[in-house]
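Write out this protein's structure.
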Amino acid sequence: MSQSHPGADSPPAVDVDLVMRDNYIALAKLIASRLAVIAVLVVVPIILNRAGASASFFLTLPLVVAAFVFVLTAYRLWAGVRLVQCRKVLRHYPLVFHTRVVKKSSLWTEYGSVFEVKISTRGEHGAPLMKAINAAGRRRWPEGTENGAWVAGDLAFGGVMVVPGSNAMLFLNPADWDKLASRRGQAGAERIALAKQAGIDKRSWRKPILLRG
């Protein structure tokens, strides 16, 4: 379900199931590429050893690198992938089109690229600064945000951003959780209960994903 702000020139409505499918496919491709790298690092030394190459540091090093890549990949998937959280938000909130998305900064971490963004509708002021991470683990900032994006959630708590066209999806949380405490306190019982049901009633960034952000 998606809708636009009154007067907003929004793109065609978003199919949530299609968005989730596209992001699960993106995650599968990410995992496949990592596994391919690990397989090469493991198989090549074995082949060389069987071909008669003597065991040496240079044959052992790729195996060490493969183990490191595997651990780092598993850690990144655990800490950085937010598809389940996004799905929960999309069950409880409609996607609303916002005409202005501005990326303020980005930070590279081992868990994924963390972006700071402002999401608002032209003519409105006071949009909170949000931290965002690609829900499927991709690092690059998605193309297509120049003319706005779809957002589900409550920005005082957090939410999900979906980019028109590519269906790239980012999980959102306030950049300064404590700064928006007064907004959440004035939200009312209904908004607070909905945020709790969607799993955005608590500061998500306490997890390792953003300790360096």
